[in-house]
Amino acid sequence: MADSPNCDLKSLSPLQLFERVTEQGEKVRALKAGKAPKDEIDAAVRMLLSLKLSYKTTTGQDYQAGLPPKDLVLINNGTTKEEDEDLVDPWNVQTSNAKGVDYDKLIVRFGSSKIDTDLINRIERAIGQKPHHFLRRGIFFSHRDMDQVLDAYENKKPFYLYTGRGPSSQAMHVGHLIPFLFTKWLQEVFDVPLVIQLTDDEKYLWKDMTIEKAYEYARENAKDIIACGFDVNKTFIFSDLDYLGTSAGFYKNIVKVQKHVTFNQVKGIFGFTDSDCIGKISFPAIQAAPSFSSSFPQIFNGKENIQCLIPCAIDQDPYFRMTRDVAPRIGQPKPALLHSVFFPALQGAQTKMSASDPNSSIFLTDTPKQIKTKINKHAFSGGRDTIEEHRKYGGNCDVDVSFMYLTFFLEDDDRLEQLKQAYTSGELLTGELKKVLIETMQPLVAAHQERRKQVTDEIVKQFMTPRKLAFEF
């Protein structure tokens, strides 16, 4: 960040100003902690005050650490109005667009960085192989500080992976596999430890279920996660209800985060109200804590400075914006993130998948017949009303759910492009495209079910036992 107060602050968006104030605040704290010369500290403080003033002038709000500005846009007369934006938070995803969420706008709103060709090429050079098709196709589309992770890797410095699952039901659907399939690939190509958090405490607090049922769902979901093929020697899966009671390091980090985030901040970030239970208000600190290696002393030998990389869906980003704001104040490195797009419901990208609606997605427990029926009956089509019109004008891959699903699960790039061209030209009919998806999903789900059958309670126990992994720190 430039320290000159003469920089053109008026050209910055509210969110960019917020990030600038946050960075400058961290710089002031670092200078004071390092006992820098007084004139240097004074200059940094003046810059901070100037940035805060610009922020207030632009947004009409005082800067509050960890509380990004509301999504407002200035209009010609200088007043403000709320943009007609997609709704994206950790519990809700809503859009009126049949193509789904506008991810370019979301990058701007959240202040993350687009995963561009240069970054993908750098990843390819670092690992010496072709990047995952989730990267090539923009399914993982946004990041925070992935460059720093690659810097560490290229300089032989360690990092680790952290992802998670909120166990709200016994059966997971194919969309739930996306972060785990990608995380497994990352773990294999970079050869790093992985921790997987099962937030059974969160689901008990938010859902109408008993604490016993939440814990049961966590263990059942763990079987599906293990069935993705994770290495027990390199992976630790933990239930919050279990691990919090056994790890002093984990709880200490939770308390540190709690001390540095106010009630006003969590209300602003997560939309909590005075009527929410105090468990919800304190939960974000629990999801933040695995971002710090000292939460896992058995894995990292008590080391506190190991970088964390978090692959997750973009709706989880508010947790980690909060975490990244707190991290420097508790002497921890900021976690880096890789964000994925949302997996669409069968009924279309503008609708929400629901575990209570068995027709909203393909579940990992579905039979081949159920998969065929769901796709044929419920998958939203981008085709025309009649065969004649379809042959003449072609289909729309941007809104066709069968094509969207193939983008996630059909690994052959050439085959996917052929299907796109044929469907767009009208050569391929909707029923024929759905048949390709059925033939892709049936063996994929059946193979997962076979692997899951091999995951015994004893294997789950091995993954979920706190222990040293196959790495030296």
From TrEMBL:
**Top EC class, one word:** ligase
* InterPro entries, sorted: aa-tRNA-synth_I_CS, aa-tRNA-synth_Ic, Rossmann-like_a/b/a_fold, Trp-tRNA-ligase, uS15_NS1_RNA-bd_sf, WHEP-TRS_dom
Cellular component GO terms, alphabetically?
Answer: cytoplasm
| Pfam families, alphabetized | tRNA-synt_1b, WHEP-TRS
GO biological processes? tryptophanyl-tRNA aminoacylation
The residues covered by the WHEP-TRS domain are 13-69
GO terms for molecular function, please?
ATP binding; tryptophan-tRNA ligase activity
Which controlled-vocabulary keywords does the entry list?
Aminoacyl-tRNA synthetase, ATP-binding, Ligase, Nucleotide-binding, Phosphoprotein, Protein biosynthesis
Q: Which PROSITE patterns match?
A: AA_TRNA_LIGASE_I, WHEP_TRS_1, WHEP_TRS_2
SUPFAM superfamilies membership: Nucleotidylyl transferase, S15/NS1 RNA-binding domain
- State which Enzyme Commission number(s) the record gives: 6.1.1.2
UniProt record similarity statement:
Belongs to the class-I aminoacyl-tRNA synthetase family.
Matching entries from PANTHER family are given as:
TRYPTOPHAN--TRNA LIGASE, CYTOPLASMIC, TRYPTOPHANYL-TRNA SYNTHETASE
Q: What is this protein called?
A: Tryptophan--tRNA ligase, cytoplasmic
